[in-house]
Amino acid sequence: MLNLRLYMLQRITALLMAPLVFGHLAVMIYAIQGGLSAEEILGRTQGSLAWFLFYGTFVVAVAVHGAIGLRTVVHEWGGLKGTALELFMWAVGLGLFATGARAVWAVTFA
C-alpha cells in the first residue's frame, strides 16, 4: 500500500510541476530577451508573495518528487531496504526542500 501511495504522490507532484516548469522557462526567456540584470530581476521578486508562492510550491513538489524517485532507484539498484531506505528518502527530501527553500527565501524576501 505504501508503494501505491508513493507512486500516486509522485504522479501528482509531476502534474503540479509541469505547468510550473513551463512558467519558469517563460519567465527565464522573458528576462533574458529583455536584457534584465540580476539586480533588476531581484527588484521585481523581492517582497513578492506571488513569486514566493510560485517558487515555494515548485520547491515542495520537486523535493517530494525527487525523493520518491531516488528512493526507487536506490532500492532497485542499490538494494537498500526497510528503515535505511525510508531514512534515505526523508534525508534527500528534506535536503532538497532546505536548499530550495533557502533559494526561494533569498530571491523573494531576504
SSE succession: HHHH
DSSP summary, beta strand count: 0
- Termini separation comes to 42 Å
Q: How large, in whole angstroms, is the Cα Rg?
A: 17 Å
Global outline: elongated
Low-confidence parts, pLDDT < 50 over ≥5 residues?
Answer: none
CATH level 3 topology: 3 helical TM bundles of succinate and fumarate reductases
| Major sheet summary line | none
Q: Give the CATH level 1 class.
A: Mainly Alpha
Helicity, as a percent range = over 70%
The structural class is: mainly alpha
Strand content: under 5%
Going by CATH, the architecture would be Up-down Bundle
How many individual domains?
1
Q: Indicate the mean pLDDT.
A: 95
- SS field, number of helical segments: 4
What does this structure look like?
The chain is an all-alpha fold. The chain has a single domain, classed as 3 helical TM bundles of succinate and fumarate reductases (Up-down Bundle). Helix content is 88%, strand content 0%. It has four helices and no strands. The protein is elongated and about 50 Å long. The N and C termini lie far apart (42 Å). The mean pLDDT is 95.
